[in-house]
């Protein structure tokens, strides 16, 4: 079992960036009506506002920003529908321009680092890979088949304070280069070195660094990642013993063997989520102008039968209070508003929170998923 030795602590340097949170609010009556419908459907705390930055997106999965604050959104694509994955630049008026396409979807996540995009690809044919994508659309495979076999999930990436690329890959058999359990890994974008940071996650859905440089991951709950730690094994949930925990493997005997492999007990989670719902993407507030500095903002949705999820919400988590959860943006009824939020990121200034909404049909509507939306949330106190 390969375990890396690294220091994740430290501070993230914040450099002045152009204000990308100044998307103009349309003044025409039709746009005002749309805005009113959105605010009627989504409940936000006083002083916060929500607007659609880009609409008509096809299965969007992630958002990122370049060094001058440009906004980019990822469309995952689909192997079943023969829909290519796409990386899109979003213009100031909501128009989109294709930067790159992928023929082995889905594309799951994207991060900007040192002048290039890094994309996690959960390819149906070639297996999970990490790609470097240039602004001219050129693609280079940085890490081939990191999951060991096709159709295994890969999440991330995020750039750490050390300049490495961090991501999560699910448990996979038949690959000597990966850990036996779902693992958080890191990749050097210069040397191409690949290392295991921590393992034993069930099926992570998001990664983010806090303002003080600590890495967190969402799984069945929210966890701080400790280098070299084991988080309960792929067949255990939240580190509970087999007799008390939720077994997802083939037998309790398999779960016990996971426990026997390790002498140390798994770390405790910051918080656990209800079994019928859970988190996806998340990020940390870093700017006092937005508020709640140091708190984690998560996309969360509960189990629903098609259409809009039962709880299509954004929540915030105060780590300083032991993981207290509070609602932030809540869909309150059918109609225009949050459909299926799957990812979010603060812009480089920290003043605006961008939310990737994969889209869902309103309750009772069997017409299928609606086009996705990229939302922006900001605070002005009014």
Can you write the helix and strand succession as a string? HEEEEEEEEEEEEEEEEEHEEEEEEEE
- What low-confidence regions span 5 or more consecutive residues with pLDDT below 50? 1-37, 173-179, 241-259, 304-310, 361-366
| CATH homology superfamily name | TolB, C-terminal domain
How many individual helices? 2
Strand content: 35-45%
CATH architecture: 6 Propeller
Widest beta sheet: strand line-up: 1-22-21-20-19
Number of strand segments: 25
- Helix content range of the residues, please? under 10%
**Count of domains:** 1
CATH topology: Neuraminidase
Q: Could you say which structural class the secondary elements and strand pairing correspond to?
A: mainly beta
Would you tell me the overall average pLDDT?
77
Radius of gyration: 20 Å
How far from one another are the termini?
54 Å
Using the alpha-carbon principal axes, give the shape. Answer: globular
Q: Which CATH first-tier class would you pick?
A: Mainly Beta
Largest sheet: 5 strands, antiparallel
